[in-house]
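This follows on from our talk about sequence and fold. Please put the record directly below this note.
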Amino acid sequence: MPKRAERSSSYMIQGQEVTLPVIVRDASSGVATYLVDSAAARRLLPGPELDVIEPWPGRTLLSIAVIDYKDNDLGNYDEVSITLYVRERSAPSGIPYLGALLNFMRGRVSTYIRHLPVNQSFTCEAGRTIWGFPKTVEEIDFRYESSRVTCKLVSNGQHVLTLSLPRGGRRSLPDAQMTTYSYIEGAPHKTCFTQSGEGVGFKLGGGRIELGEHPIALQLCELGLPKRPLMTVWIEKMQGRFSAAEKL
């Protein structure tokens, strides 16, 4: 088992010290965001502390992100993130539906990561130990074309999903602070992180997803996938910084 060298500041992972914050210096990232069934999404939350946001009655938002980490304190690896947009139940809900939609458009909503496959064991152990992220080691393959990126996820020999996204953009994103929730030893925690990017492109729709027969794929089917995403985002050069997890 990995041992903490110093609580909330550094950890020993596979004999290597990881000091917080963890810095991402270069990565490429694509995200497809879908409108999905709220009741099915709530069944995927692990505890009563969180609830999904609802920008429309009976509908919430799910994102599938594919990230190619090229220069990162946790190594060079690939990742797929399946994420729900949530709020703490104890927090004010604001204006029904409209408030959730405006907060999403302004980048002010938090997330809960349901699945976080990676293709390297070091980052898997680090993510689970430091932040309680649900990382697992799987097969992830990126294929780059001039105007498109395709990522295929396979788990235990079973096809989970293949996501194809448009590539390219000229926009820049300044540093934005975000929050994601996780559970460590059964207790809810939140992690704050920042993200910025260059070569950013936004499109309505634009993505294509294929699902296999793996249990994760079947979960996505219960949410209403495969279908056209609401929007896709591509970031050619992403940078970020992950702080320590804080107990709620």
User: Anything to note?
Assistant: The chain has a mean pLDDT of 92. The two ends are 25 Å apart (CA to CA). Helices lie at 38-42, 98-105, 121-130, 215-223. The first helix runs from residue 38 to 42.
